[in-house]
């Protein structure tokens, strides 16, 4: 019977502890990594790659090997064709829904093969298709600009958004032909921010309102576009708008903040109080910092009921340094909060087994003798490097067997 408990430690770190009973065993687990690439929005059944062929599996033995995708989600995007051994699309993929931003969008899969048991890793890159048009958050934007505003003054416009990535994202902004205004843009992270630029002085007595149209174009072929209507009301006399002390602000905010918490306070200098009122704006970049709010999760070994326990076998005649097994775990946190360390919490014979604290590999420290027990119990602790005190532990199970020369030993 397998069982486990999850706890918090006194030093602020998540860790997983599990009973690891070893039946010392000579089997090997073959591993390989394949890489494929497909565009998004491909229909169900679309061929991705011939996994069986790329792994060198003979057609005559393919059916017996029982290829399948191991997925932790009910909404798996890929599956292996049982007749052809090919990886194919199971569900249509929307790249923008799956991966936000312009970076590479990849899906990592595990392919399980039986007879003998093997696990192979497959990475599928989802490339972008220009299936979205640029769009603005509002249909129009208004400005109050004093007639004595100096040429060259810039006014930040609403940035258009395009979920597509790379060349299919927003590439340029244009403005309707006019005598007084031009448009420029600057890059900010993944967004291209447009600015309305005054190129010729305004005269309220000649024209008190300017109607313009800004168009955002992406890099697709053909390009897609979105528009923003600009209304400029020319004001008289009041020629000093409010000014922020900085052009932009950067704020670092820990995740899971309480609702209502103050994120930033601005200092604004306003020297005029005329009518009509003037306005200004500023860019605020908020960076969300990771908190240690996820415990390590044991990936291997796992018992049939899902608890972090296992049994391994090795023969008595192995030498010192023999790899018994490797404990595998991951932590959803990043940086130091996701850095895992392994340690032996309990072991029947400290002279017989050693654990690498960084890799989770368990190896023999010496050869077995006739006096060694046939069964050994190891309790492994997996711990992250967070500051918040968290821990996980499991109740150990004992395994006992009479020692026999040249026979496997339970651990």
Written overview of the protein:
The protein is mainly beta and 411 residues long. The chain has a domain at 1-25 and 293-411: Cadherins (Immunoglobulin-like, Sandwich), CATH 2.60.40. Helix content is 4%, strand content 37%. The protein has 3 helices and 28 strands. The protein has helices at residues 51-54, 59-65, 95-98; strands spanning 15-21, 33-39, 47-49, 68-70, 78-80, 87-89, 106-113, 118-127, 140-146, 154-156, 170-175, 181-188, 191-198, 209-218, 225-235, 243-244, 248-254, 268-269, 283-289, 297-300, 313-314, 323-326, 328-330, 341-347, 353-355, 361-364, 377-383, 409-410. The strands form 10 sheets. It has a 4-stranded mixed β-sheet with strand order 2-8-7-4, with no helix packed on it. Strands 9-15-14-11 form a 4-stranded mixed β-sheet, with no helix packed on it. Strands 1-27-24 form a 3-stranded antiparallel β-sheet, with no helix packed on it. Strand 14 (209-218) and strand 15 form a beta hairpin. The protein is elongated, with a radius of gyration of 31 Å. The chain starts with 14 loop residues before the first strand and ends with a strand.
């Amino acid at each position: 019977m397998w069982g486990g408990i999850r706890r918090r430690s006194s030093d602020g770190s998540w860790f997983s502890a599990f009973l690891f009973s070893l039946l010392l065993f000579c089997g090997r687990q073959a591993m390989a990594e394949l890489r494929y690439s497909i565009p998004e929005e491909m229909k169900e059944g679309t061929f991705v790659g011939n996994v069986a062929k790329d792994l060198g599996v003979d057609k005559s033995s393919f059916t017996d090997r029982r290829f399948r995708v191991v997925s932790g989600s009910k909404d798996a995007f890929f599956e292996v064709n049982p007749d052809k051994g090919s990886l194919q699309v199971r569900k249509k993929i929307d790249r923008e829904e799956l991966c936000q931003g312009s970076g590479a969008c990849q899906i990592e899969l595990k392919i399980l093969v039986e007879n003998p048991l093997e696990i192979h890793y497959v990475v599928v890159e989802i490339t972008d298709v220009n299936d979205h048009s640029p769009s603005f958050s509002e249909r129009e934007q208004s400005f109050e600009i004093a007639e004595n505003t100096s040429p060259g003054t810039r006014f930040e416009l609403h940035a258009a958004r395009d979920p597509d990535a790379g060349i299919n994202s927003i590439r340029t902004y244009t403005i309707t032909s006019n005598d007084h205004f031009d448009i420029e843009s600057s890059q900010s992270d993944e967004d291209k921010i447009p600015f309305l630029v005054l190129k010729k002085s305004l005269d309220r007595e000649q024209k008190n309102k300017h109607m313009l149209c800004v168009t955002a174009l992406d890099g697709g072929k053909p390009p897609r576009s979105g528009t923003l209507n600009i209304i400029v009301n020319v004001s008289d006399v009041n020629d000093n708008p409010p000014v922020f002390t900085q052009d932009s602000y950067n704020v670092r905010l820990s995740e899971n903040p309480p609702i209502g918490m103050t994120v930033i306070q601005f200092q604004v200098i306003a020297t005029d109080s005329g009518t009509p009122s003037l306005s200004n704006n500023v860019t605020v970049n908020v960076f969300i910092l990771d908190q240690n709010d996820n415990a390590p999760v044991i990936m291997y070994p796992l018992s049939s009921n899902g608890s972090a326990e296992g049994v391994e076998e090795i023969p008595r005649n192995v030498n010192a340094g023999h790899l018994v097994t490797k404990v595998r775990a991951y932590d959803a946190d990043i940086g130091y909060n996701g850095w895992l360390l392994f340690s032996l919490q309990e072991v029947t014979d400290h002279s017989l087994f050693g654990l690498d604290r960084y890799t989770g590999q368990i190896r023999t420290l010496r050869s077995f003798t006739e006096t060694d027990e046939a069964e050994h119990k190891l309790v492994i602790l997996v711990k992250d490097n967070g500051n918040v005190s968290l821990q996980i532990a499991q109740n150990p199970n004992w395994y006992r067997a009479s020692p026999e020369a040249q026979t496997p030993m339970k651990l």
